[in-house]
Amino acid sequence: MKKVKKELSVEDIKMQKLLEELREVQKEMNIAYTNLENVVDNELIDCLIYELNATQIRYKVILNQVKQLQPV
Fold this sequence. Notes:
The chain is an all-alpha fold. Helix content is 79%, strand content 0%.
């Protein structure tokens, strides 16, 4: 029996891309947290804090986009 491929709508494709990007940002956030736990240089700590804040903002923006695409 053949499997029939269902064509994805534009919204489904956008949702898949956003969810993939969300997973990437989660990985980046985890890396930033791990690096922050292991660094002792004050300048590097400041840099990692800025990086962490930026990834948290990206996460929130992408999450809001995902919520907007979800059907009501």
